[in-house]
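User: My collaborator sent over this chain with a note saying "see what the structure looks like." That's all I know about it. Can you take a look?
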Amino acid sequence: MKKILTINDISAVGNCSTAVNLPILSVMGHCVYPVVTSAFSCQTGFHGFHYISNDQLEVFADDVIGYGNPDIVYVGFCTSTQQLDSVIEIVKKMKSRGKMTVVDPIMGDNGKLYPIYNEQYVVKMKQLVSLADFITPNLTEACLLTDRDFVGITSQSNQSGFLARVGETFSNFCAETGAKSAIITGVVMPELIGNIVLQNGVRYVTNQRTDINYSGTGDVFSSVVTGAIANGETLVDACRRASAFIVGSIARTECKDSRFGIEFQRNLHSLVK
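Assistant: Without extra context I'll predict from the sequence alone. Here is the result:
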């Protein structure tokens, strides 16, 4: 069992963020120490949500590190460059003790930066990513981290061999970002969705696409990947496990309002070894 410090937000409505980290990492056999970056009444896809931000992030994390001695730090959603400054200091502290860092560099999707962020946030995220052992950006975030043109890259998504061309484009991604290893997620093709695994070369994991774009699947993916890595699995196997879990969870999801996310709770048993 590994002790995992999660730095992420929490939403009361919507299967995402810390509400995903806790059950998934726990059922995979790990102890979760959550430090909440912000608390949302509903995830941001709902109109009129409210939230409060934790302005004592580093103080909370110091308590956890001091008493809990976590093995891994997992970073998810942060609300500001100021919080990222705190996270960078937390990660540096953990790295000085030989601990592993996983970063899900949440910044945008569908080729666009989320409205709450600006270019300075991207600059800070690049600093954080350079300290990470593993990162799980989607294709938009991979482009933001390396100043690549999302529209230009995805303009050929209907053509044969598209995933391999994207993989070739990002073959030096880890050297460019400073991260030791990465999975670039959410490469959309006509009937498939692909993940590019960058660790000792380039590998690919694909699954059938769904017509509904559910909220929170990135949190589910990165949680399973982190749990699998903590259990000694390779990054490719962790990617396969996470992808299969999402596919199985979508198949069991009864609510078709994508804002509520996938009903992964119905599928947690599949993560138990």
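A starting point for your reply to your collaborator: Residues 194 and 206 are 4 Å apart (CA to CA).
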